[in-house]
Amino acid sequence: MVTVKKVQRRNLQTQSYIPSLLKGLGFTFSKMIKNLFNQDKMPTLNYPEEKYDYSPRFKGNHVLTVKKDGALRCTACMLCATNCPADCINIVASEHTDPAVEKFPIHYEIDVLRCVYCGFCEEACPVDAIRMGPEWQTAGVNGSVFNYDIKELAHRPGLKGGAVSRVDDLERHKAGI
Amino acid sequence: MFKCTINGHEVEVPEGASVIEAFKLLKEDIAHYCWHPGLSIAGVCRLCMVQIDDGPRLHIACNTLVKDGMKITNQTEVVKEAVRWGMDFHLINHPLDCPICDQAGECGLQEQYMKYGQYDSSMAEKKVKKRKVVDLGERVVLDSERCILCSRCVRFTDEVTKTNELGIFNRGDHSEIGTFEDQPLDNKYSLNTVDICPVGALTSKDFRFQQRVWYLKDTDSICTGCSTGCSIKVYHNKEGLFRVKPVFNEKVNGHWMCDEGRDLYKHVNAPVRLKQILKSVGNEWFPLGLERALDHLNEAFSKAENISVLITAQHTVEEYKALKNWAQQLQDKTINFVYWKNNPESFDSFDGLLIRGDKNPNTKGLLEAGFEFADASVLDSSDLVLAPMPENPAVYPKYMEKLEQLSKLQTQLCLLSVSNITQHETINFADGTLAIPMKTAFEKAGHFINHQGLTQKIHKGRVIVKAALGLDELLQAIKIGKWIQPQLLKSRKTNESSKVSGELW
Fold first, then answer.
1. Whose CB among B20, B360, B365, B405 lies 3.0–4.6 Å from B449's, allowing a Cys bridge?
2. How far is B499 from chain A, CA to nearest CA, in Å?
3. Which ipTM did the prediction report?
4. Is B124 on the interface with A (CB under 8 A)?
5. What's the whole-model pTM score?
6. Domain A62-174 belongs to what architecture?
7. Of B100, B133, B215, the CB nearest to A77
8. How far is the alpha carbon of A164 from chain B, nearest alpha carbon, in Å?
9. Contact between chains at B99 and A77 (C-beta distance less than 8 A)
């Protein structure tokens, strides 16, 4: 079956584009002049010189928290890796020399290119060892820099000495929990 | 036989059976920690509460015998309330250790907690702290904080191994499991205590922190450690094999297996395996494709007049059958079979429980296959020796010595090896010796006949070395000149670990 479509012919209204063009340009230039003289009210940012601060609840780059003594809080329970829908967390557990610690990760790696930033790891963690921080600029020159290891996750310069976990074993022990 | 009704279902049980056995017979859910079908009754966990004939008081199912016409239920609110409070008592001093506890995922406490947990602690007192990470000898680690004092492990050492190492020390909430003056727990069945521990108090040093149990899958198999042939489950994932646990088999091993058998997965994992076909030329090994290797073998077999097969009882019934057929087809050659035993002086020994001196799973199978065995001296006059090596060369020290002797005589060998034979730098193999990677019992399907003459099936589990061949597959490949991977043949039986977790403890 052949369907015949009626093509709309040009008329004066569609042909005369000049007034509309001038109208659009007028809007653009009026905004430009307005912004030039009121730069503080301008809604856009001069990235990368100026940056937007997201709220602390923003799910950005992962942070591994540390204990008060600076050691990694993570107990290598693998719950984050189990919960991870992108299967991007790789942990190798080992026995700690201190029996009070018992288990800790000797290897903790997140492949952030696989990560979907869902925050399920943060939710699964029973000891507040992994958080998703407000950092979001994750540029890199090749694929290998996107495998974040313990050094990157817990001790990167941006963390200024590391984020301290809210769950402290020693305090829990003293409280008799 | 007595008839009784459990939760509305009628069941017939033999006289003298306990109520919990009737529940198990019916596969009806019942909470319990201290009762174990292979041990005596302790009645200490107070969790298997049941209501009988609308009586005013509850009974523990493990220590109550079924009488004819009994009406038993554990579904009433009274029973559930009792179990709930029983659970609460168990959890009073239990630490919040699940993240670092190896038992998590197959833990009795976790399982019952999901059904009967109170979720909020109502204790005003502090938890009693006990010893953690106690070294209990070569294989077991104790965490007495996690222990709920079900006494299964104590009864195990009392009743099964009769070594009496473990006991409960101190009184009240300071009670804890331990050994007298911290002497090591060093019997040959010590890891069974880890299996029967319903919580994570006893953990295996070997498996400790290696994997979380929910990452593992299991395959039913037979232990290849000795001629007892215990039924086992092998736990594995894509990183390899991680542990071996016994499966209840009334005729063979009951509920138990020995510690030695649990180590057998180690020689299967990739780091120690021979991964490709190698050919020895001038004391050096060179990799060889399968087609080239088969050409080489065919040539060697056609040249050789006097062929010997140095066989052990470590292969399946099917492989022996294939070997027999292969020998019948080469009637123009002299083929001698030499049956090599491990440790002949202790071959017939038995420790009274499970461990036998015959370290082969299929001695009966080999003898029943109908080979005529020649004396070992024929090996020295052979042109070519086909040596399907034992899977675990550690139990066959003399086998390696024999190979060394043969290599000194410059006899050409065709080795089928699981372990990486090229690491034996002391042996200088003759030129043209082939080392072919062999499948382990966990990678092939087949049958073993144990010392009682019981034929047991092994299932194909995870394949670790893809290039590995079974003895039968190699012989078939030699016959037709190439090897076709039987991709359609799937005899794999893999269960999700979580499905059977209830049976583990």
1. B365
2. 17
3. 0.81
4. no
5. 0.87
6. 2-Layer Sandwich (3.30)
7. B100
8. 19
9. yes
